[in-house]
Amino acid sequence: MIRSLRLWILAAITLVILLINTSGCSDLVGTNEQSKHIFTPPYFGVNLSGGEFNTKALPGKFNEDYTFPSTAEVDYFVSKGMTIFRLPFRWERLQQEIYDDLDPLQLERIDQLVDHIANQDALVIINPHNFSRYYGNVIGTPEVPVEAFKDFWTKLANHYKSNSRVIFGLMNEPFGMSSELWRDNANAAIAAIRAADADNLILVPGNGYSGAASWHSDWYGTPNATTILTIVDPIDNYAIEVHQYLDSDSSGTSQDCVSANIGVERLIKFTGWLKEHNKKGFLGEFGAANNDICHQAMSNLLAYINDNLDVWIGWTWWSAGPWWGSYPYSIQPSEGKDKPQMKWLEKAMSKANSQDVETGNNGVPNDL
């Protein structure tokens, strides 16, 4: 009897431990039953460009007006230690008329990359690179009702909800509308995704190109620092995506960086906002040319993020892809050789991974 009681108590304790571990380690990027791995931030990677190219040719011709990177390019960046890829594409190419079914050929091209990335135990952000527009018309207007945006994300969510390695990047750099309109569009898309029973991580940008440095500014309307506080996710599994460049106007169009400290200076206030409001941030685009000041500025920026991994869940460098040519921010290898900026990123990733080992993931929770 005593032996049976001991066995029963042992079994009960084991069950409690299992329940605690399961509830405390839910998958940040999705909790569906098909998930084979538990992912914990930080996630470091790169944008894989091509699918968003040539906006004057919509939908355009594949491999003439636009392209997608190859699986070999994914393998190269995985070999460098990268664990996340942002995959930009144009909404008009995946859904050529609003409310239509998703184009099967275009979806197959995206799926080939998504599946390959997932098979490398990496994560992929699917990102309509549309600036909150469709054929040039703003979402939430009579030409592109918010219902069309909901329909698009419902179809994407249904297609990818069984893959926990897929992250939903709602939109690239909304601009030219009220912050309230963008907030309402984002909330509608989030509601549609969750109504489709998809629990994947969602990345939510702000208005005004979603700049970190301008998060509290009002030149684009009500500051994102105010409106994004009213984002609603029924399962609270989202992060805020911002972009930040280091040239004089934060546009990412110059080879110059303002100063060695400009990257940190442009992230500090947004980072404080994340901490104050218990939010998580993701740096979806950042980049710089290869020169001494930019090297120092980028090293300082990456070190700052590593020091604040309690709120930053990662980043994706802008950019890589087969069609960039001599673009100064590209880290696409050339003639089998790494670009200099790749070394900057490898050093930062190595330091972050060392912090994970020393501090137990630097205090970052496994779920949001």
From TrEMBL:
Residue ranges, annotated region (Disordered): 348-368
InterPro entries: GH (IPR017853), Glyco_hydro_5 (IPR001547), Glyco_hydro_5_CS (IPR018087)
Glycoside hydrolase family domain residues: 47-320
Biased composition (Polar residues): 351-368
Biological processes, Gene Ontology terms: cellulose catabolic process
Keywords, ordered alphabetically: Carbohydrate metabolism, Cellulose degradation, Glycosidase, Hydrolase, Polysaccharide degradation, Signal
Highest taxon of the lineage: Bacteria
Swiss-Prot/TrEMBL catalytic activity: Endohydrolysis of (1->4)-beta-D-glucosidic linkages in cellulose, lichenin and cereal beta-D-glucans
Annotated EC: 3.2.1.4
Xref: Pfam families: Cellulase (PF00150)
GO MF entry, a single one: cellulase activity
Sequence similarity: Belongs to the glycosyl hydrolase 5 (cellulase A) family.
Entry-linked PANTHER family: ENDO-BETA-1,4-GLUCANASE A, GLYCOSIDE HYDROLASE FAMILY 5 DOMAIN-CONTAINING PROTEIN
Record-given protein name: Endoglucanase
